Write the structure tokens for this entry.
Amino acid sequence: MSDFLIHVISVSCIYGILALSLNLQAGFTGLMNFGLIAMFGCGVYGAGLVHRFGLPVALGPALALILAVLMGLFLARLGRRLSTDYWGIATLSIAEIARIFATNLEPLTGGAQGISGLPLLFSGLRPWDGAARLALFAVILGVAWLICERLVRSNFGLGMKLIREEPQLARALGYDIDRIRSTVMVIASVIAAVAGVLYAHYLSFVGPELLLAPETFLIWAMVIIGGIANNRGVIAGAFAMQFMMAYVPFVKDYFALPSDFVAAARLMLSGGVILGFLLLRPQGIFPERVGGRHDH
Amino acid sequence: MIEAQDLRAGYGDGADILNGISLTAGRKELVTILGPNGCGKSTLLKTIAGYLKPRSGGVKMHGKDVSTVPIHEKVRHHRVGYVPQTDNVFRSLTVAENLRLGARGLDRATTARRYDALMEQYPVLASKQGRKASALSGGERQILSLARALIAEPEILLLDEPSAGLSPLMLHEVFDAIAGIRDSQGMCIVMVEQNAFEALGVADRAYVLSLGQVAIHAPARDLLADPAMRALYLGGHVA
């Protein structure tokens, strides 16, 4: 397999994990998180900060998890006071605030220059390091998928779907919607942070440009294209979007377009996919399976 | 079974909607709450149910203070059933699935026994078990939401305008079902209603609210018999 293909599949796996995280929130629980990238940021900066201050690499995931749990709880807490629409806007704002902090808190985060030189995973295994990383990412994606599947098929998962459909009625049936929301946000945030740690050690770099809002919308496009509330579908969506993104530079070269074209085309691709699917096939390529059994 | 004392409640930072309401409801009793739009009927039921915390005063159920206990805990630990006015079924689920949602916490054998009993009690549901709830008529949805609340065998049942949006024929069917629950299962039922005459026809006692206070508290049959009360609070004409 060529290095390019290994790279695209590796990044697809990381984005697949992110798509699963968003799917738990938006797909199954109806929590329209437009600031998912802040949860991802907990992971990338968890790994980055540990490296910057010379701490053992193994502390990176631990710091990322702590930040992710706090972020999840904070966003869930915010959801108690705001209606769904306003909460969605608030998450977008919080992600932007997190990015601005990352850009301006230079002594801590390295500012706009970011933090570079993070240890590359399996660098000692050259020339097989790329394949080893891909295998690791694929295994973690599989574990994340398994966790998400078990969760949504449990009685807890039924509660998630009832909250999505009729939150007040779910309460009247004995479901504690605040607790369910908090649990979902924490689990989803931890999953996104795991993707962040992997990405930081894959790029060997952490910077505020990783937290740009369009990244969240790219993940939304993956979920919408694949099929909202379908875990396999959103992973397929992540791969489809990543492959499309990866081939944009080839299109640019083929038509001899200016280099600005790549960034613009990627943004247009995200927006176009979201718009096209919402208008023509809102259920995505793989629609939600309705009426599945839940374990009690 | 239910004892609400001097309740004051409202939404957010807004003014009090309930201005010191006291109410009692006992076992084997159907109490209805009546009054014009905006008088605080649904707010009172939501405060008793636990959707809304009282600003002052208190609510007791089975003799225990449950003023700050949220609805989901009342349903799970205090044997309370609540049927909202609208959006009271999960439309994407079947009748059977909707019904089983009410059996949360019950073992499989009890759920099956209660399920079968309810199917016998409400033949209209039995013939549509596999259909999506979205395919039911308004009255059938009300019956389904009632049955779902009953599957857990609550001791207290709170109903928010069960006749909302129903045809006259279905209205009688729903009220008959509610009276049947009181008579056969000895439940304590508190029902908010707009259809005053029909509600008084099945209720034991009534509270008529006005501007967040109890204007009249009387046995239902006395209210029905009093033309002055009818004129003042119940729409002014005899059914």
